[in-house]
Structures are given as structure tokens and as C-alpha cells.
Amino acid sequence: MECGASLVETTGAANRPLVDGLSLIRNYIPRDLAKKILDAGKKIESERRLVTVVFADVTGFTALSERMDVEDVSMVLNDCFGGLISVVLKYEGTIDKFIGDGIMSIFGAPLAHENDPERAIRCALDLLAEIERFNMRTAINLPAPLGLHVGLHSGWVIAGNVGNDLRMDYSVIGDTVNLAARLVDMAPRNEIYLTEETYKLVSNVAVVEGPTPKIFRGKTEPVNVYRLKSVKADEEAKKAQITQDAFVGRETEMEIVKQALDQVNRKNQVRLLIRGEAGVGKSRLKIELIKLAYRNGIAYFEGACSSFETNTPYFLWTSLLRNILRITPETGEAEARKRLHSTLHSLDLLDHEPYLGTLLSLWYPEIATIEEAVRKARIFQATRAFLSIYALRRKVAFILEDLHWIDRFSQELLEYMFSRTTSVVLALFVLIFRDEYVQAKDLLEEGQLVDLNRLPKDEALKLIKLRLGTDTVPHEVETLVLQRSEGNPFFIQEMIKTLLDKKKIVVRRRKVEIVSENLEAGIPGTIQGIIMARIDRLQDSIKEVLLQASVIGREFSKSLLEQVVERKGDLLPNLSELRSLELILQQDEAKEYDFLFKHFLIQEVAYNTILLNKRKELHATIAQAIEELFPDRLMEFYELLAFHYEKAEQWDKAAEYLSKSGHKAGQMYTGEESKGFFERKAVAVKKLYESASAKPSLGATLKAITPPLIAMLIPIAPVFFFIRLLARSHSVEIEEQIAVGAVVILLCIWYAGALWFLGVVPFLRGRPKLYDVMEDQVRVIYGDGSTLAIDFDEIQEMRLVDVKARHARPLWQRVIDPFNRLMRYDTLSFGMWFKEVVLNLLPPYSFGFAAAKSEIQIRLISGYAALRFLFPWLNTAFKSRDLSLTPGDTREFYQQLEYAFKRWKKRKR
User: Fold this and answer.
1) Alpha carbon distances (Å) from 550 to 574, 608, 777
2) Strand partners, 431
3) Fold identical between 7-232 and 250-451?
């Protein structure tokens, strides 16, 4: 009778925490994969399937349960399982169920591939790598690292019903699942065991040890078991291995790196500054540093500046915080808040949550009204405290890359982090930059500078041999490469690729053969030319993907690129080809984006190849794709959207997002951070006035004035019919009827003429291009350049009104009181009715003249309410007392307006 009761309460097994598996699956599974799994499941319901079952069981749980609070243990396991789930989904496996501290996944149903057993073993190897990554990155000080043991077995199963939770229940023919479960119990920590049935399916790609006969309960014969070591390297893996192994020289620099890591082991703050020109090997040295850190049990997290984000405040620290919390562009706001809260809870830093949340573009109203200087100081303190406590819990290295593109405010926070007035963060800070980063001199004190120069001749020659895979190199090849590259490692590698791709040389049996009479013919003299030549040799579809990705930036996600490319079905094969050509790299799960260009110069050359008009179109397409992909989280992307719309020269959208970026920076940080955005917005508005798109057209003008014309004629029609009815009832002569009709017609002409000639048309010649909130006024800018500025001291009241709720009232109420004005009065006298209904029957002009879910109503202190019935030209937004604003994002704009209005009133007091 305890069905459905909590297992924690009923079993009491050391307060064993439960993994929220379904929630984790929903958080990590991509939408397209979910659809594929569900669609496939509906097709194969109750069918026999040959599948590979993967059991992965987490070890080290007992130590956690005995030495940590049950809530912290649950948080650790959920975070750990989140990473494991992402690995399974990466290979498009299906999570079948959670069993104890492990998960059971299936490859081959309901989504089948031609290489499901191979996907299963690759997944198993990645699961071991993921548990190691988790041990390195978790913010909680674990009493002992977690481990994993994995078992694989292939056989027949019968698939049951597939539910909308992305789960499957399997009944088993034979003992496929049981054998896999027993196999995982037998496997030692951090080992993968697979049966002979699975090995036969993957023998062409798997590197194993064994077989070893094992006795299983219920089996009459021993079962041959293999230990999976790795997968065989294919050509692409060999190329990548050559690239990674081709690290020559730098003995002095590597010794400095080793000493720095040794200092971290002794719990000291270490500052390592790596400086060098483009292509000299800064990122390559970083990779070697990461390898050494990993071997020494030192966690590492990366933050980077971007050439596209040089004006985004604190972008460096935002990227670092996102990397620590594993927040990607696809991570929703709720999940981002959850990860931030759980991490800060484990570090006992919840007081700093609102201030660190601002770096993630999360809105916390409780700190919005704090003095700007205080708020900025608290953000700095919160960042330092977070990194400091994190470093106290475990040995860690923070890698800050491309500082030559740092924004001013990230630089301020960086200098604060190393200031003598603050407590020391006991970690390794690796700062990577080019020579043009002039602020480096302010950071050299108590830091070690590593100047990376070009390779000397002997080391450059060694690199050439490694890249070619030979022991000797012809003199002609050696001379050409050394002269053109001048010892720059990246240039050397690109030169060799060009010679091989153009069939100028070939490598046979570890010997280089020259097959062209003139090696230099067709080989560009500059690195930009070499890269361009490689891009030009790509197939058109692959080249198009590379060029379009370059407009997104050095790093890019597959989901965003899918919105940009036309042939979406060819995207993954094209990306795979670009990876094999070493033009782009695929990031691991700990990084924010899916892919990145191997070198910034590749992205730069590709970007500069695109024609200006095409580039504008791509920037606009990317901005629109961001708006479509993340409609509920646009605040995170305001700065990036402003950048893309500026590059697209869509000045109205650029001005809109620059304004939003400025207000976001002002509300979250200080007015100083917002100043740059408002300056750029002023330029965008000026460009908007100058652009042809801002010129009013006759069609736009007629469309704009139609609503007020109809509004003017509505009260005249009842008067006309009333007079006709009165004339008939009193036997009025036809001449008198004609006279009355003439008066009515003249009255119509009076109103129409007033609307047309006396001030309304100049005001309505274009739709509003920009709504903006300044320090002491709200401003509306129109397409023809006219501006309506409403000073805060002229505002009597303002409110956000739900249009749907207003339209839900009875018709007679909407006719008599279209804007709820009479709701303010307890009694309704004829005089009040005349003043509030008849004189204000003409509705206040909505600046957008478009239906909206909500609108902002503003009542001014002064205006011409009583006279505008007879003098309709007074019924303009410039002279009206009642105004209605309908921007596209009304609620957000009202929040900005209300925030600015409250701050203005506070300053006045």
C-alpha cells in the first residue's frame, strides 16, 4: 500500500537522493532529436529490435552520502547525470531508465542508425571522459572524485510503448538487458566491458584487450568479455593527432608553465601573461597548459573577448561565468538561474546572486534602485568573492584569451581583481593577448610575461618535418616554406597544406617528392592569400557554409547556423568536411558554442571575402534568426543584435537594440556603461533620417491617417440620421432637409480638412521608428525625422493596460467609455458625461496604429481636451492630454519607463 511513496522515506537507505531523470532529459535533449525519437518510436511500437544496451554506473556515491548533506549530494548527482545525458544524446542514443546511481541507454531503438554499435562504444568512451570533466569543473569540494564503470551488450529486445517523456520500456527476449547490467557490475572503476556479441559488430573500429572468460550467474558457459581501450584512428583523427603533436620548441616557455602550475598546487595566486603576434602559437601553448593542468588535477575555465563584442560591458567575465556554469546559448533563463543559484548555494554565496546574475543578463528587481556606484562595487566584489571561494575549494586555472579585444569595463574588473586592496584569488590566471594590448603593462607587476616569438630555423624545420610526417625535406621545399612563413608556426602549417592541396608535392613512404617544376607558381606570398586560396578550392556548398559562419563570429552554434544556411540538410556533412580540412574545430561539451574557427585569421579572411551587400544581408539574417531562436531571452542578446543590425545598416532596428542595450547596462550596472550605447544610438538615428527608407510614401500616409479620419466621421453619422428622423416626424419640407444635409456635409468637410491640412498629416507621415526612454523624458522618433518628447514633469499618471481585457467588456460600455475613463468617477452626471465622453470621444492616438496585447496610457498635466472636439487639429499627439503608446514590446518598454520615472522622482526629491 505504499505505491508512489518517496523512496527516501520508505527505504531510508542512507537518505539516498533521487536523480530527477525526466527533468534532466527535458533540459538536455535538443528539440529536433526529441521529434526524431518520438516519430521513430511511433513507427516501431512493439517490434523486435537488435540494439546495443549501455549501462553506466557512477562510483564514489557512498563517500558522498557519508560525508555530505543529502541536498548537496542530490545537486552533485543531478549535475553529473546532466553531463552524462548530454553525451548519450550527442550520439542520438535513447535514455531508457535510471537505475540507482546509473543510467541505461539504448542504441538502435527507437531511432536506428547504420552504425549504432559504433555509436555505443564511442558514447561509452566519452562517458568516461565526461566524468573526468565533471570532477574537474564541479564547484562543490568532493571528498573523493566520482568514477564510472560501463557495460555493453548487443542483442534482441522488444520495444514497448514510447511515451511523450522520451522514455521506452522494454521487455526482453533472452537476457540482453540482464547481461549488460551484470557486466557493468563486474567492470572495475573507469573501465568499459563489452561482450563478444558487441565486439563482433565493432571489431573494425574498436581497440580492445581480451577476451577474458567470465562466469555469470544463470549462465552454463563462460562469457567472453573484452575491455574497451579506444577506437581506431581514422584519417581525420590522424590529421588531428598530427596537428596536436606538432608542438616543437618552446622548452623555456613550457618550463615557465610548469612552474606556474606548481605554484597553484601550493595554493598561491599566479599570473601568467602570454603575448605574441597572430599565428605564433598562443592558443597552441594554451592547449599544452590545459593538458598539464588536467594531469595535475587542476580545473580550468576559459573566458574570451571577441572582436564582435568590443563594446559589450563585461563580456570577458560573462563568458567566463557562463563557462564555469556550463550555460550555452540554448540554455533557458530558468535553467540559467537554477545553475547559478545551486552553485552559489554550494559555495555559501547566495548574497551575491543578484550581482553575479547581472553578468548573465538576468534581471533582479531588488537591486535595480540601488545607487549606481554601490551596485557596480557589489558586482566587482561578487565576482572576486565567487572566484576566490571557488579557488579555495579546489585548484583552478582561469584562462582569459584575446585580451586585445577587451572592453573598457572588463578591463576595470580585471585590474580590480589584481588590486592590492582586494583579497588574493589563489588560482592561476592565464592572460593571452597580442602585442597591441597596451593595458598589459598595468598587469605585469607580480606576473610572469611569456613573449612568444617566431620559431628559429632549426625548430621551424622540425615543425615542417612533423607536419609532413617525414625525416627529410627537399631543400627547395624547406627554403620556400621558411622564407614565406618567416618562422610563424601557423603560417608554416598553412603553407604545407597549400603545397599538398595544390599537388606541388606529395608524400610517399615517408618521403617528400616534388611533382611541380615551379613550386612558387600559384602559391600566394601572404598568409591571407594562402588562406584565401584554400577557401577558393572548396566546393561551393562547403564554401558557403564557411563564409556564412564567419559572419556569426569566431565561435558559432549549429542551431544558429541552421537558421542562416539555405541547404540545411547538407549542413552537418559540410561542417564535417571543414573539420577534416582543419578550417574549423568542434568544441567539447564544456564550451559555450558548438564550433570555432581554428584560427582567427581564417574567420577574418572568410568574412572579408563576402561582398558588402551580401554581408549586410547575412548580418540581418543572423539577427532575425537570434530573434526567432530566443524570443523569450532577447535581453541576453541585445548587444549582439545591435551589432548585427548596425552591420546590416537597418538603422531602425539598430537604434532600437542600442537603446535597449543602453537601458539594460544602465539598470544593471551604471550610466557609464550605457553611455557608449546611447552615443551609437544617436548615430543610428541620424543614419535613419538620412536613409531612403525613412522617406514617407503616399501609401504610408493614407494608411496612417485612415483611423483618425474614421474616428472623426463616427460621431457625425449619428447626428445626420438623428436630424433626418427629426425632420420626418415634424413634416419638415424637403428644402429644409437639404439645408440640414448641407450643414452636415460642411461639418464633415470641416473635420476632414482640419485633419488633412492643419497639422495631423505632417505628424503622421511615417510610422514611429523608435521609442526611447531618456533620463527625464520619453521620446518617440518618426520616420520623417519629427520627434515627440514628453518630459516627466508633464506626466500626471501612466499605466499599462491589457487591451484584451478592455475589449472583453460589453459593447455599450466600450462605445460610451472606450478607454475606461469613467471608471475613475463614483457618479456620472450629464456634465461629467459630456466632458469625459463627448469631448473625449475621439480616442488618443496610438503611435503605432496597430493592434497590441497591451498599451501604455499616459495622461499629461496639460492639454487641449475641451477644445479639440470643435478644433480637431488640436487632437494630435503634440497637443493631446491623453496619449497611447504601443511599441512592439510594450511590457518591457513600460518596465524601462517606470524604472526611469521612479529614479527621476527620487532625484527630484
Assistant:
1) 14, 9, 40
2) 273, 400
3) no
Cβ count within 10 A of residue 778: 24
The residue type of 778 is: V
CATH architecture of the domain covering 7-232 = 2-Layer Sandwich (3.30)
Buried b (16+ CB within 10 A) or exposed e, 102-137: bbbbbbbbbbeeeebbbbbbbbbbbbbebbebbbbb
pLDDT tens-digit profile of 266-292?
Answer: 877 888 999 988 888 888 889 889 888
Segment 863-871 mean pLDDT:
56
Residue type, 791: D
Alpha helices in 12-155 (DSSP H): 21-28, 31-43, 61-67, 70-90, 116-137
* Sign of the dihedral defined by the CA atoms of residues 382, 386, 387, 391, in that order: positive
Domain ranges of the chain: 7-232, 250-451, 457-533, 698-908
Q: How far apart are CA 203 and CA 225, in angstroms?
A: 13
Residue 840, pLDDT score: 41
Q: CATH for 250-451?
A: 3.40.50.300
Of the chain, the percentage scoring pLDDT greater than 70 comes to 71
pLDDT of residue 865: 55
- CA 498 to centroid of chain Cα atoms: 35
On the question of pLDDT at 16 being above 60, the answer is: no
Q: Which residues contact 234 (CB under 8 A, 6 or more apart)?
A: none
pTM for the model stands at: 0.64
Mean pLDDT of 656-674: 82
Q: What angle do CA 320, 322, 324 make, to 5 degrees?
A: 70
Q: d(Cα 533, Cα 524) in Å, to the nearest integer?
A: 8
Strand-pairing partners, residue 576, are: none
Helix (H, G, I), strand (E, B) or coil at 6: coil
Q: Please state, rounded to an integer, the average pLDDT across all residues of the chain.
A: 75
Q: Please check the confidence at residue 541 and state whether its pLDDT lies above 80.
A: yes
Q: Which long-range contacts (CB under 8 A, 24 or more apart) does 754-757 make?
A: 754/871, 754/872, 754/873, 755/705, 755/708, 755/709, 755/712, 755/872, 755/873, 756/705
